[in-house]
Amino acid sequence: MTQQQATGGSLLMDCLIGLGAYKGFGVPGESYLAVLDAMYDRADKFELILCRHEGGAAYMAEAWGKLTGTPGICFVTRGPGATNASIGIHTAMQNSSPMLVFVGQVGTDMRGREAFQEIDYTHYFGKVAKWVCEIDDADRIPELIARAWTTALSGRPGPVIVALPENMLRAASARPPCGPVKVPEPALSSAQITQLQDYLCAAQRPVVLYGGSGWTATAARQLETFAAANDVPLVAAFRYHDICDNHHPCFVGDAGVGMLGYIKTLLRDADMIVALNIRFGEMTTDGYDLFDLPKMAATLIHSNVSDAELGKIYIADLPLQAGPNAMAEALAGIRLAQNADRKAWCGAAKAAYDDSFTVAAQPGALDMGAVLAHLRDVLPDDAIVTNGAGNFATWPSKFIKYNKDMRLLAPQSGAMGYGLPAALAAKAHDADRFVLCFAGDGDFQMNCAELGTGMQAGLYPIVLIVNNGSYGTIRMHQERNYPHRVSGTELQNPDFAGLARSYGFYGETVETTDQFAAAFERAMQSKTGAVLNLIVATEAITPRLSIDDLRNAGA
User: Is 287 left (phi over 0), alpha (psi -120 to 50) or beta?
Assistant: First the structure.
């Protein structure tokens, strides 16, 4: 039977649907009109959520990939559209999130002439993406789209860029669309499991430092089982708080921005670091000062789904190319000899973690410490929390305990403006799930127009703007390095509550601590989401911690 011919745009959409995609994010452009036309005929199978800026669309696709473990789909036009989207692509790379970005491209007959909005995407994105390809022949769409999907998911997940020349999208093809692909996860051999057990049995103070993407809920529970059976502290890498249950007796905190003193001491005193699926980024290593380079003093067991991460920063005593789920399954079966000193050591770290939630009164009429204490009492057990970048992000990262069903979507790249688009993507995935976004006043204004995306698509999270009238992180460093010489960091802000109402959201300004609980209840009752503008003191840049050990943590 002869396959009926279709346009390249139609074949592309049939391939994506065949691979399992059913929702994407984008800004329209004339460079991929044939794809938009194909979406019209497949509206019952694929929904394009119309965004206000390509950066916001790319953030949404990245958050979708991080939340679901399947590639987030983003469509942008050529030139300015692609360059606008680059911030989300960089975020996906540093977050290790699977993502496919489809970019309209000039026709193949114009390529190389610096035609209108022409960019060589292979050179432009370079190592910011895992792979960049351009499809010149419509017959190759099934092959290259299947490869792009596989590449985004395999090894260390990340973003893939696919350029789509206009004339290719209009060309006819009789090729059948691709179907689902399977991506294997590398596992441990029996010999490696024996080695792993032997190393662990020789340790007196092992710590598991874990993170990365690709985790299943089963694997997280298996890691917790190993820790509980053996009194091994669990430390989350930067912004991976939500993998393990923070209420677990062995979860002792995170190694990230503003690393607390007791975590630094714990990691330095450990005689073994089990680095599970992490890439040893700057934040998790306290600027690469926490461990000696290239060989740390502790015995290092480093497992990662990608062999490229093994030995990249630190030389491991036992390097293991294995996915997080295979590694957690292997650990769950290991039992160490009972050790009273190790049990006490782990318990002391847990007590320090619990103590870290007690903070001194914050300056100003609205105390964020009290706000977070209230949120810990009222957040649903399956809440999704998002944040962008800035000192305000210390609050959701240090003062919320993430249980096994909660999720955290936050940028490893420290990219401002991420929180609101990520919250909208979470709502796009599950409209009934409670989603709370933390934003700074400068951070929020990077992508506040995406409230229009929420209004149009019916996506309604709650947004808390921690408004101190400044670019707080830069102001903090400025005051530290150039005291009393504030320049370029003060902000004049609009009426955020009024702005929210103009987009159909509930909006309210909160100026005192005692106003917050009632305002948050009204926000939770709103059918159209909410934006609460929290007015905090300008000097409330970082939390004032009440324990001497924590005061010395740094920022």
Answer: left
Give the confidence band of 108 by pLDDT, cuts at 50, 70, 90. low
CATH topology of domain 6-173: Rossmann fold (3.40.50)
Q: CA–CA distance from 244 to each of 6, 66, 216, 256, 530 (Å)?
A: 47, 16, 11, 16, 29
Report how far residue 157's alpha carbon sits from residue 167's, in angstroms, rounded to the nearest whole number. Answer: 31
Closest CA to 209 of 228, 236, 229: 236
For domain 368-551, the CATH architecture is 3-Layer(aba) Sandwich (3.40)
Q: How many CA atoms lie within 13 A of 218 on its CB side?
A: 5
Task: With beta carbons less than 8 A apart as the criterion, state whether 535 and 510 touch.
Answer: yes
Mind giving me the DSSP string for 37-62? Answer: HHHHHTTTT-EEEEPSSHHHHHHHHH
Residue-range domain boundaries for the chain: 6-173, 190-355, 368-551
Q: What is the pTM of this model?
A: 0.94
For 436-470, write each residue's pLDDT tens digit: 999 999 999 999 999 999 999 999 999 999 998 77
Identity of the amino acid at 2: T
Tokens of 69: 């473990």
* pLDDT per position as a tens digit, 229-273: 999 999 999 999 999 999 999 999 999 988 999 999 999 999 999
Is 328:219 a contact under the CB 8 Å cutoff? Answer: yes
